[in-house]
Amino acid sequence: MAIEVRIPTILRSQTGGSKSVSGSGDTLAALLADLDTQHPGLRGRLVTEEGALHRFVNVYVNDEDVRFTGALETPVKDGDSVTILPAVAGG
Amino acid sequence: MLTLDTATVRAIVAHARRDHPDEACGIVAGPAGSDRAERLIPMVNAERSPTFHVFDSMEQFRVWREMDDRDEVPVVIYHSHTMTEAYPSRTDISLASEPDAHYLIVSTRDPDTDEFRSYRIVDGTVTEEEVRVLEVLPHAEARD
User: Fold this and answer.
1) Which of A40, A41, B41, B94 is 20 to 30 A from residue B13's alpha carbon, by CA?
2) Contact B79 A85 (CB under 8 A)
């Protein structure tokens, strides 16, 4: 078992075109670190240099926006489904 | 070129007028790979601002999952400008994240003139495209 992560079109250049990838970890931060070893650069598209999630990237664990569940400290486990969506926003 | 049917254009402009002086936003979904703007989905502007828009993250999640289930994509992503022309702002360009979408912008600055223009925005590069409005969309080609 692993954690499935759905990748939006704009980030698929980081995953060799794959729509979904899988990794492991106890928290979202650990999962992203694991994914970054397989897909270098992916984490940098999601997390700022200060170590927070980018404001205009939405990450969901199962059906929950992680902003409401602890952000990068959100616990994850095998069988969870993580979805990444770029926020649709502008001026 | 972006092709839209009259009813969709009217509904998008009406949405923008209704939410004025705040920005309105939404999408038109269509079958993946078809480039057909078939299903209008007005979205909430979670920011409720005259100068900014952002989809509500939970509404976006539900709508994106529904599109996934139906094998659809956001063919058009639209929003309104309430005080300026229908041209992408610097923020629009820097936050554009759907390279396959048509970015439609409606300006509501003039109450008597409907102004809408469409763009591709890829890697910070804006390319305007023609908008063709038809009474109804052409019949879909048979899909495998």
Assistant:
1) B94
2) no
